[in-house]
Amino acid sequence: MEAREPTVTDPPRTTRGSAMVRLLRPRQWIKNVFVFAPPVFAGVLTAPGQPGRAVLAFALFCVAASAAYIVNDLRDVEEDRTHAGKRTSRPLAAGELTMTQALVMLAVLYVLLIAGCVLLPAVAVPIGAYLLLNVGYSLGLKHVAVLDLFIIAAGFVLRVYAGARAVDVPLSSWMLITTLCLALYLAAIKRLQELRTSGDQARAVLRQYTAPLLERYAETAAS
């Protein structure tokens, strides 16, 4: 019997490697450029020894972010399997990776984080706080309206804090407040877009929001 030719309706085959990459969410790493804000504004990014420390802090936050996404996907795998979009886009929900494989990847990421914090101990506190914050988020805090926005914003503040500690420069109250307000604005706008495009099907917490309320949050954060 001849092998059946693939048709346009056949789902694309996904290799394990590409599934592992998607589980890490590298597209989200762009958020970690906030780490570079303190050395840039302090004018020390190009000082001797500082670029390497800043880049390492950035890399560690990329690893920490990927670990947080894996924890979230492990926690939500059953729910994601019933979601119209996530059941095919999320590697665990789609069955492209097993829970065991995800746990092994998570363990490797934690080892990398420990090793990185040994090399750059100044960022151990913000990295640890970021991981704990995201565990709480995945375990249920993401379902609490308003608090979910502040947790997202706190993640950006921790990135900036890590950047300051990495190059040993003081972090001004102005930069902390600006980062918090900007992050709250972005979080509110993201929730507003999700609510307008997908309704409350995008995530459960959207059932507790209305478009006018999110618009008010965004305007308050921007003012």
What does this structure look like?
- The radius of gyration is 20 Å and the shape is flat.
- By secondary structure, it is mostly helical.
- Mean pLDDT is 90; it is low at 1-12.
- Helix 3 (50-80) packs antiparallel against helix 5 (99-119), helix 6 (124-139) packs antiparallel against helix 7 and helix 8 (173-198) packs antiparallel against helix 9.
- Helix content is 65%, strand content 0%.
Task: State the low-pLDDT regions, or none.
Answer: 1-12
- How many β-strand runs? 0
Rg (C-alpha, Å): 20 Å
Average predicted local confidence, pLDDT: 90
* Percent helix range: 55-70%
| Number of contiguous helices | 9
Overall SS class = mainly alpha
Strand percentage:
under 5%
How far apart, in Å, are the first and last alpha carbons? 69 Å
What are the secondary-structure elements, in order, as H or E? HHHHHHHHH
Largest sheet: none
- What overall form do the CA principal axes indicate? flat
